[in-house]
Amino acid sequence: MARIFSGRIGSDSQVLNVRTGERERTGNILTMQGKETKGIDEAAAGDIVALAKLKDTATGDTLSDGTRVVRFPPQEFPPAAISFAITSKAKGDEEKVSNALKRLSEEDPAMQLRFDAQTKEMIISGTSQVHVEVILDKMKRRFGVEVELHPPQVPYRETIRRKAQAQGRHKKQTGGRGQFGDCWIEIEPLARGEGYQFEDAIFGGSIPRNFIPAVEKGIVEAMEHGVVAGYPVVDVKVKLYDGSYHTVDSSELAFKIAGSLGWNKAMGLADPVLLEPIMNVEVTAPEENMGDIMGDLSSRRGRPQGSETVGEVQVIRAQVPLVEMLSYAPQLRSMTAGRGSYTMEFDHYEEVPVHLAQKVIEEAAARKKEES
After folding, report:
1. Amino acid 51: pLDDT
2. CA atoms within 13 A on the CB side of 174
3. How far is it, in rounded angstroms, from Cα 231 to Cα 367?
4. H or E segment and range at residue 2
């Protein structure tokens, strides 16, 4: 659909897409009357028409006469407020679903689509649950594929609370050449958000220099699956400070395995804990709903960060765990009779309270059992 702001445009005309710099041929010009379409020869300023067969034009693009280029500022679309994980109903339709959603996202910039590498889920986000349902209904009608919606998995992390030392020793003797790798590592917690650091503190050749990268590689791969619930480990410093090797049996593979064994032992001794993502949430709603919204955010373990009046509405800011926000959109709509909205963005990770961590661990174990 396009709106003509000035001048006239005829069928089978050439126009310039200002964003791409490429010329487009308009093809037929259609007017919409309910479900019916009617072809016309020309459209003038003020008309809203459908342009067929545009090759590389997306929602929000400006089409202009090449001799007098005009570019309208980009449209601002409301941020996504609710997300779902999607799975295809029919086995083998995954590629069809992906292609269909990609096409629909080009038409609807308010829709977001991404693949979560950690949870291995396709995530679709929209301005509301109704918005997402309309997108999926359109996909069913136009592309003939259906999906099921699920709450997305929360991207938990793991870390440690204290220092620990451990030995990783891999020794395997077969009929021919054996495998031998031996390392000692020390791990310690870093400040939240500092990620991962590796220190090579080997002196005197206790581990040959060419095997040290293999030890680190084994540790990094093991950190992808923590010992608490199998989530990636963050904010840890690892120091490799001692070890031994065999002139014949030692290899990169042996030291890689030794590194992962040492890591798993050390993490188990370092008081490991679960971390959950904390979101900055901003809720906009009428003043009469302030009390209900504040109470609801508190029940979701939210920490108020202040509020202010903007025009005739109140803007409430809080920090809330992501897991508590998965069902927030319909609840906010119910509390405010559809007049409230919210946005959220990731801020940092915090420890999961002890009384909730066990539930997360059990759910992760159940998922792992199903996948196996």
Report:
1. 82
2. 5
3. 12
4. strand 2-3
**What is the per-residue pLDDT for 175?**
67
How confident is residue 296, by pLDDT bands cut at 50, 70 and 90? very high
More confidently predicted of 20 and 229 = 229
What is the C-alpha to C-alpha distance for residues 76 and 314, in angstroms, rounded to an integer?
21
Helices 252-269, 212-222: crossing angle, 10 deg rounding: 50
Chain position carrying tokens 């174990």 = 365
CA-based radius of gyration for the chain: 28
Domains assigned to the chain: 2-64 (2.40.30.10), 82-150 (3.30.70.870), 158-270 (3.30.230.10), 274-354 (3.30.70.240)
Return the pLDDT at 166.
Answer: 96
Q: Please give the structure tokens belonging to residue 134.
A: 């309309």
At residue 338, the 3 state secondary structure works out as coil
231: pLDDT confidence band, cut at 50, 70 and 90? very high
Burial (CB count <10 Å: 0-12, 13-18, 19+), residue 279? buried
What pLDDT is attached to residue 214?
95
Cα distance between residue 126 and residue 319, in whole Å? 21
Question: Secondary structure of the chain: what % helix, strand, coil (to 5)?
Answer: 30, 35, 35
pLDDT of residue 280: 93
Average pLDDT over residues 23-30: 82
Name which of 107, 105, 130 is nearest 115 in CA terms: 105
Q: What's the pLDDT score for residue 361?
A: 92
User: How far is residue 5 from each of residues 37, 46, 62, 69, 261, measured CA to CA in Å?
Assistant: 21, 6, 10, 13, 67
Mean pLDDT of 258-276: 96
Query: CA triplet 276, 316, 293: central angle to 5 degrees?
Result: 80
